[in-house]
Amino acid sequence: MLEACQLRYAFHTQPPLFEEVSLRLGAGEWVGLSGHSGAGKSTLGRLLAGYDEPTAGHVRIAGQRLPVKGLRPVQWLPQSPELAVNPRWQVARVLHEAWEPPEALRHAFGIKPEWLNRPVRTLSGGELQRICVLRALAPGVRYLIADEISTMLDPITQLALWQALKAEAEKRKLGVLVISHDAALLGRLCQRRYHLENARLHAAEHHQLP
Amino acid sequence: MNATQPRLRALACSGFVALLLLALLSGQWWLGDLPGRMQFDARLAPPGVDHWLGTDALGRELWARTLAGLGLSFQVGFLAALLGSAIALGLALLATLSPRLDALVRLLIDTLLSVPHLILLLLIAFALGGGLQAVVIAVATTHWPGLARVLRAELFQLRTAPYIDISRALGKSRGFILLHHFLPHALPHCLVGALLLFPHAILHEAALTFLGVGLSPSQPAIGILLADAMRYLSGGYWWLGVFPGLGLLLMVLSIERIAHGLRRAL
């Protein structure tokens, strides 16, 4: 269980971006997070993945602090895949940064073998996002924070990406926090939803997977 | 302005420096003892068919001494730029490791930048007893702060890049991130910085040698040729100063032009 307790985050002396934020994400659970632009969704996602420290409160995984060294069990997937990869690297190097995904999994994510020897800058945003998602699925990862990962993709690529991720997450009992503005997408994917508004986190209506 | 003009200029300068470099590197082999060979029947001969760039007060061929001097200057410039940029790169990389190390590196940079570098250069060269090694060390140790400051800023910008955070979250060590993310990013900037340091080093070598704390008077360094020329200026022996000075100017300008071309290309 990934748990956030009474999180508060403020940039320096600014008023807090959010406070008293508590949420839980269980193994194999899909939870949605929505909110207006600037509400602090991405910041909350980064706190959950251990990228930033909260001003107050804490994040625990199975009751323990997030590990500082080694592969983190919580991985954050940012909206812009171009910023998530070293622009000087080749695709194969990016994909194999943490592990070597089997060919079947590469195929399931629509990653073509001919991409592997290409520089990352020659791939489109959608192609690169698939690489980033698969890279984050290294053995040992138990939770994913998917921060608007399909916002910049066309509907067909979106569907393919979510289908591949859903199948793999179900197989490995991964907990996924889906951050999105798209209420319909969250409704289709997530069992529970949260909404971040006025610096507070609210539980939104429950949705059952079809 | 036509966009191809700077590239053409950089290309022409690269060609000139390549030719010069070839002449300088092979110079030791085909010049032999010519830069030091005295001809007492041809003392202070003006430029002409027998003596292309004229001769000095001891009848030594000025073209051979200029070429040998430029070779020495190139050597000093290369070694000082290499050492200076290595110090700058090493300290900039070190600064990314922790806030304490960064504060220490910043303190070092600010301290050295606050001291007039020509004075420091003279002091170091003098303390080390002059000679090629002293000049190289003096130039390198006084010229790295500017480059280190640029490299540190570049690497700090990179430190907040999402792919660095992700690499850390994927379990990569600080050493891996330093070697595989930071270093390849810093190297092109470092190369340009080293090339820009090159002409500075050459000019400082000439200045130190001219002031008597640089290379040995027995070596045909450009600074020594220019210092000698000063003594004969009033006599109208213009070639003694013009040709070594022109050679130095061309070499410095060409390297600087290459550095600017490279900076634009990168």
Describe what this molecule looks like in 3D.
- The complex is a heterodimer of chains A (about 210) and B (about 270).
- Chain A is α/β, with parallel strands linked by helices and about 210 residues long.
- Chain A has a single domain, classed as Rossmann fold, CATH 3.40.50.
- Chain A contains six helices and ten strands; from the N terminus they run βββαβββαααβαβαββ.
- In chain A, strand 4 and strand 5 form a beta hairpin.
- With about 270 residues, chain B is mainly α.
- Chain B has one domain: MetI-like fold.
- In chain B, helix 2 (about 60-95) packs antiparallel against helix 7 (about 175-210), helix 3 (about 100-115) packs across helix 5 and helix 4 packs across helix 5 (about 130-160).
- In chain B, about 40% of the residues are buried.
- At the A-B interface, strand 6 of A face helix 6 and helix 7 of B.
- Chain B: Belongs to the binding-protein-dependent transport system permease family.
The run of helices and strands of chain B is HHHHHHHHH
- The strand order across the widest sheet of chain A is 6-7-8-3-9-10
Q: How big a fraction of the residues of chain B is strand?
A: under 5%
Q: Would you report the number of β strands of chain B?
A: 0
CATH topology of chain B: MetI-like fold
For the record, the count of structural domains of chain A works out to: 1
Name the CATH class of chain B.
Mainly Alpha
- Structural class of chain B, please? mainly alpha
Low-confidence stretches of chain B: none
What's the count of strands of chain A?
10
**Helicity range of chain A:** 25-40%
Radius of gyration of chain A (CA) equals: 17 Å
Level-1 CATH class name of chain A: Alpha Beta
Q: For the record, what is the CATH homologous superfamily label of chain B?
A: MetI-like
Alpha-beta content class of chain A: alpha/beta
Fraction in helix of chain B: over 70%
Poorly predicted runs of chain A = none
Q: Supply the number of helical segments of chain B.
A: 9
Please give the oligomerization state of what you see: heterodimer
